[in-house]
Amino acid sequence: MALQVFAVSFSQTKKNRADLLKARAKSKKEIDSFVKIDFLKKKYQYLDSNFKIKIDSTTFNKAVKKYNYYPKRIKTYRDSLSVILTYELKSFHGSRIAGSRITYQWKKIGYYIWENELTAKKLGNELGFTKPYRFYEFLIDDAKRDAKKRAILTTLKNKLPLAVKDTIDIFPNKRFLKFTFKTSPQRIQDFKNYRKAKNKHKH
Fold this sequence. Notes:
Elements: H1 2-35, H2 57-66, H3 77-89, H4 92-102, H5 106-113, H6 117-126, H7 132-140, H8 147-159, H9 162-165, H10 173-183, H11 185-202
């Protein structure tokens, strides 16, 4: 009897593991398909060309209900955008990816290049970028060999501690910028302040 129970349990465990792997593969395939979409150029049914929301309350409430969003937690533009993108793209993954690109901030660019938000925006604008995510795409693309871009990255490298500066190159651009983002003094400080404020709010 015990052996029979063990066999059933083992079989169920194998099935659960297979189902999990299948779900992960499906999720990865879905994410990969959305990553390739240019969400800044895409035409949306419920967003205008400046990503302002254009949806009636009936349809919005329908979207909230369909994807089990909590109405009380929808307080900001970003919250509403998530609902609309999920409804339009029929995917939480798609909504997350599209939303992160649409709402990308100059402040985040500043974390990558160790500049404040205003300087990051100025540099982006000088290179013809009005959308932060477009500037980010430009910065991480090794194929984009631009003199001003090289100057930005070289200046950034020179700001690194001496012990690090001699061990890292600006190419590949994405790897270099991933490192500078992670070690950005301003990002680290802002995160500490955020955690401090959050903990203070709890008490």
